[in-house]
Amino acid sequence: MTLKNTAQSYGWISIAMHWLMALAIFGLFGLGLYMVELTYYDAWYKGSLDLHKSIGIITFSILLLRLFWRSINIKPAELPAPKWQKMAAHWMHIALYIVMFLLMLTGYLISTAKGKAIPVFGLFSIPALPWTINNQEDISGLIHATLAWSLIVMSALHAFAAIKHQFINKDGALNRMLTPK
Amino acid sequence: MKKQLLTLTLGAATLLSSLTHAADYKIDTEGNHAFINFKIQHLGYSWLTGRFNDFDGTFSYDKDKPEASTINVTINTASIDSNHAERDKHLKGDEFLDVSQFPTSHFVSTKYESTGEDKGILTGKFTLHGVTKTISFPITRIGEGNDPWGGYRAGFEGKTTLKLTDYGIDYNLGPASTHVELELLIEGIRQ
Predict the structure, then answer these.
(1) ipTM above 0.90, yes or no
(2) Chain A 29-48, CB below 8 Å of chain B: which residues?
(3) Cβ-count burial of A146 within 10 angstroms (0-12 exposed, 13-18 middle, 19+ buried)?
(4) Buried-most residue among A41, A47, A80, B122 (CB within 10 A)?
């Protein structure tokens, strides 16, 4: 059982967090697009938002754990590729982390714009920041939507690159994120 | 002597005209002694209240000549506050107030009819969501007098009910929530 990353591949913990977040983010994106179209008398009008917020908070905590885990782990060696592609992959990873962080932060700022805590599956609540700004819910909402679309486009590019490595370069890029070696 | 008399007459005339002229007041939004509250039914089971935090206005009023009263209020629609971030976001969005397209709402009075001591019917043009309608509603003078800080204040209250669809807001909130009550509680400082 390889929990930690190795020089050849990612460990189970990195793999689990990667795919869990991928699932959560695509789920949240779909749920988000769907729930904003619901109207007052739709049965799931309230429930869909509660679920989106709860999953969002859990995903945020996984992101923080993941960043921590990344900082205390080694990174598998870079795969052979032209220099510009290595650079692009590196910066795409950094950008994905930044966009995910800001996306979840702005989601939090929408719901806490009036100082109210966010309940997570009714189990516990995440309190609001001690200060808020004028029209915080609108400003955060606009950024949240823009970042959500950006993240989906970026994830698609990221996935496209991984698939290209796996099937065209045949260097096992995808395998490294599926099972540890 | 002649000149003195003229000055005196002019002075008296000025004094007289200032007496017959209604006093001008600025609504005390700075000290927050004025409120524009709203109230709407939730599902027909309860009331939901909120307010507009940012507005501005002036009025002129003289208790001896109430018919000359006028009032002018401008509301910043984006300042709607129902103490719930996601709801306020909806209320500001294009399904309700559409504040990016209609950032302000106005009331400009056209007539005041006295109906008794400290009571009257105010008529004016109200603009909301880009729609202007003439509305009339009763108002009451609460009181007026010197304040402890060297100023002079007068306060009023008024209440009216608006039908949301009259102002082009046609989101379906249910049969019990087609109208919204607006409550105006204002205090003005004489200028």
Answers:
(1) no
(2) 39-41
(3) middle
(4) B122
Work out the minimum CA distance from A110 to partner chain B, whole angstroms.
7
End-to-end CA distance of chain A: 10
Query: What are chain B's domains?
Result: 22-190 (2.40.128.110)
Could you tell me which of A153, A148, A154 has the C-alpha nearest to residue A94?
A154
Q: What is the DSSP string of A1-15?
A: ---S--SSS--HHHH
pTM of the full predicted structure?
A: 0.83
Q: Which of B78, B89, B171 sits opposite A141 (nearest CB)?
A: B89
Could you state, in order of their start, the residue ranges of all structural domains in chain A?
Answer: 12-177
* Model confidence at B20: pLDDT above 80: no
Residue B174: partners with Cβ closer than 8 Å, 6 or more residues away:
A40, A41, B43, B44
CATH 3.40.605.10 fits A12-177, yes or no: no
Q: What is the pLDDT of residue B63?
A: 86
B142 has pLDDT over 70: yes
Least Cα separation, residue A22 to chain B (angstroms): 26
Of A39, A40, A110, the CB nearest to B85: A110
Higher pLDDT among residues B69 and B12, named by residue:
B69
